[in-house]
Amino acid sequence: MPSVLVQGTRTRWTVTLERTYTLRSTSSGPAKGIFVVARVILRNSGRVGAQPGFDLIEEAVDRQGRAYGDDGAADGDIAYADPSVGNDLVFLAPGHAVHTVYAFDVPHVATGVRFVAGPFDAGGNNSTLSPLFPLTSGAVLGAPEAPRRSPYAPVALDGERARWSFSLARLALTDHLSGVLDGNIKPRGRFAVVILNVRNTSRTTRSLDIDVDTQLADDQGRIYLPNVYHNVDASYQYHTDTNTSDIRPGATAMISYLFDVARNAHGFRFLAGPFIIDALGNIGSALAYPLVLPLGR
Q1: What do you get for the CA distance between the two ends of the chain, in Å?
Q2: Strands (E), 109-219
């Protein structure tokens, strides 16, 4: 069984893939596509007790660059039916481990699905997810590769609540930002500032920051989460709109997204998906990132 060490700033986890399989449904209902399930062992390889569910972020990425979040409801259904499956929120002392599952609802046409994971940054910034294991050999059920396209051509994102169109204005790579409050800001690797023209194609006024979840991927399969804390500094430096709320139907805003990427990262793809909002109005990360915008570098 393959094992990979995931090193965070506070903790170390050894992730071992036990097996992978697919399900068409769980007790909560059918998948929109098909559930690709990774059964893994999470072992605390650090020196302090910790909870893997709070320390690790897990996703799946297919060959076309689309990313898929872990489906917590499906995870719970599988664990309920199988007593050997544990919860990744359990507190583990050093050297202890838990067997758990992650289910990803992917389209039938997805190819080359891989499991990616990385340490969670407590501030929600600078987290990088790296490819760990392949979950499918080739295709789930088979699909052609996506055709190459210009990054400057608009790409649509249609959610249940809103519709948006994204097109690239500019990709800037820099070793520092001039912070509004923090002065000269340095990245861990280098900053990638993705500047996009974003158009509201819905019939109602919408707020981009509660509609759309974003990530950045590179050609090595790594996933970068946005640097929310310093994004306003990028907006000021590159003269983009800082207000992403109340964008009227048909209106376009120039928006910047900031990512702290590895210095050897190239072949970037901007990913976007609709935020999940539950019955109480709580916002959760997207379960899928169907919009893939190649950035040409």
Answers
A1: 35
A2: 114-119, 128-134, 155-158, 163-174, 177-179, 183-185, 190-200, 212-217
**Amino acid identity, position 72:** G
Q: Is 259 helix (H, G, I), strand (E, B) or coil?
A: strand
Q: What is the pLDDT of residues 216-235, one digit of tens each?
A: 999 888 999 999 888 889 99
- Continuous segment of H or E residues that includes residue 235: helix 231-237
Same CATH topology for 3-134 and 155-294: the answer is: yes
Helix (H) or strand (E) holding 12: strand 12-26
Contact yes or no for 38/102 (Cβ under 8 A): yes
What CATH architecture does domain 155-294 belong to?
A: Sandwich (2.60)
Where exactly are the structural domains of the chain?
A: 3-134, 155-294
Report the largest interatomic distance among the alpha carbons of the chain, rounded to a whole angstrom.
Answer: 56
In tens, the pLDDT along 228-275 reads 888 889 999 999 998 888 899 999 999 999 999 999 999 999 999 988
Closest CA to 19 of 82, 130, 93, 102: 102
CATH architecture label of 3-134: Sandwich (2.60)
> How many CB atoms are closer than 10 A to CB 94?
14
